[in-house]
Amino acid sequence: MDEVLTALRKRWDASEPAGLATVVATWHSAPRQPGAAMLVAADGTVTGSVSGGCVEGDLYEVAGEVRDTGTPLLRRYGVSDDEAFAVGLTCGGILDVYVERVDTATYPELAEVTDAVAAGQPVAVCTVVADRCAGAALPVDRAGAATAVAAGRVGRRLVVHPAAGRTGTLGSARLDDAVTDDARGLLAAGRTATLAYGHDGERRGDDLAVFVAAYAPRPRMIVFGAIDFAAAVARAGSFLGYRVTVCDARPVFATRARFPEADEVVVDWPHRYLAGEADADRLDARTVVCVLTHDPKFDVPVLTVALRLPLAYVGAMGSRRTHDDRLARLREVGVTDDELARLASPIGLDIGARTPEETAVSVAAEIVSRRWHGTGTPLSATAGRIHH
């Protein structure tokens, strides 16, 4: 767990109230991203940071007041007036910070959350941070301006797990369902964000601002084969929120200059790299693998490893002829029919793709479809719920 969650759990276990300030939205060159937090304990101890020093002095006082009164605040810091340098951001960015009292009464789900995080299990915490219908407007664009949160749903919390299960409520079953769907999407991408809803979960509404803190690392996409199609797939993977690795055994092709969108470029034999990542426990059930090497001496060994791991997606590029030859070679080395059934080959959905960029869209669509159990059918030809 990070230091703020660890300190918060310690105070919570001791039944000591604390003030928690969390960045819930940013604009421009803000110094910290949503999810950054600062804890102010009853003894004055501070853990964490929300801006790297710009506004911590003011928030120290605010968090102490909220801890004592129990009345949450949604506070905005920027540089839009003459007092900005006193309590604002000199970098030109804007932060919205939600400040709340945390104790066993206001946050009964904390043990569930911290236990999941400590165990390496993804979990999302969804908190209503503004309720327009209760008379609490969102903060105005003015440095240091604060909005005392009125009654209503502010402070209500919903804890969402990735596959099934949730705890708490935001005040409406339909709202809970809508936020659960969106929170699982953010959790799958390892993203934290503030979302807007109507009071009954309408996605076009803006009555409620719900902050979704996703406690999960970004899922991994590993692309084998340093070819032009791999560069396009790496860009698509990064756009979808994956931490992208491109791996190839040929150092002349596997270079940072050729794959600027990738988080890392590795020179290694694909099967050896993948087996090493599995042994080091750096893969999980969200990991996707795209084999684009077009060469049996690379394809067969790495697919033999990949198809025996509990990964979200394993796809391989090639023609129908290449696919048939690949299946025969995999069977020869002992890959079972059940394992072969997990292989997406030829890779991607049939959208008529030709260029590397179009092919990357095809691959990305298939990955998303498998993640959320979509059919790949045009929505105009279906009925019922859009979100599965």
UniProtKB/TrEMBL annotation:
Annotated ranges, domain XdhC Rossmann: 221-367
Domain XdhC- CoxI: 12-78, 151-198
One Pfam family from the record: XdhC_CoxI
InterPro entries in the cross-refs: MoCofactor_Util/Proc, XdhC_CoxI, XdhC_Rossmann_dom
Highest taxon listed in the record's lineage: Bacteria
PANTHER family on file: ALDEHYDE OXIDOREDUCTASE MOLYBDENUM COFACTOR ASSEMBLY PROTEIN, MOLYBDENUM COFACTOR INSERTION CHAPERONE PAOD
Name of the molecule in the record: Xanthine dehydrogenase
